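1st attempt posting a full record on here, be nice pls
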Amino acid sequence: ALFFFPAGDGAESGAFTGIDDSNLNGYANYQGVMAICGVGQTGVRTQLSEQGANLLICGHSRGTDGVGIATTDTVGTSGFNNGGSSSDFSDSNYTKTYSGTRAAMAQVAGVAALMIAVNPDLSWRDVRIILARSARKNDATDSDWTTNGAGLPINHKYGFGVVDGAAAVDMARTWRYVSSQIQVGSSTSNVATTITDGSATGVTNSIVVSGTGINHLEFVEVRVTLNINYLRDLDITLTSPSGTQSRLLSRGSDGICVNVGTSSIEPNGNCLFNGTLRFGVLRTMGESPDGTWTLNIRDQGVRATANGTFTSWNMKFYGY
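the predicted structure (as tokens):
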């Protein structure tokens, strides 16, 4: 089975543009799920598509120019097309305004179906790797583009790029299947140190990994235990042995706190969190996990004025 999930449409259009993070969604950041972001017809991120180190690739959706996706709609007037707009089809059973990362996700799932049609023996892991390697680099002038340690272009807004159906199907035809997946956990680093509110450098801690038997990473799961007054003041960045940096969390708004389990919105607006967060990382695909991994946590001190505690962290590696 192949599981696709929308990256999310929580990015804001105001002062915190792009701050809402797909990595805070427990479905979208799970290693068995492919998180799909959205771009418009120009190849630029849709206004609400969330960023994240967990993103695989983007599909097309309604862009900032207002051009949406044409598709079937809910029968009658309860769907996108309620029959009252001159900018949509006259038949309300169809629409040309479909939008969001859900539209992008459906497109990528369709490409995956074409890949399975030409090569039924592909596993979901094969499909994920092929989609990453065959993706088109879009919005080439975006400053976040970089190359990971395996030579793959990566971007927190776009994952590995935009789905290329023809390239993905061609690659699928002659694909050499990946070997059985290896899963290895790291040691736990019991940091137990203060996260100083407003510190420019934050707290940095490292874990040395060796002897995993993995030559090519597919996914990294990161678990971070902390106690913080305002979760969305934090920037959390993971650096791999190859030097690839992955932003696991970045400065954001209160509202997302309702989605992260034990955190809560207090009457004073503080976003309290005391527990463990699980993050997903795809940006290191193809790299070796052996070496020194570094985690940095920085409290920007925008909303709360109290220090926090970085308790511990560990990782789990998936690869072959």
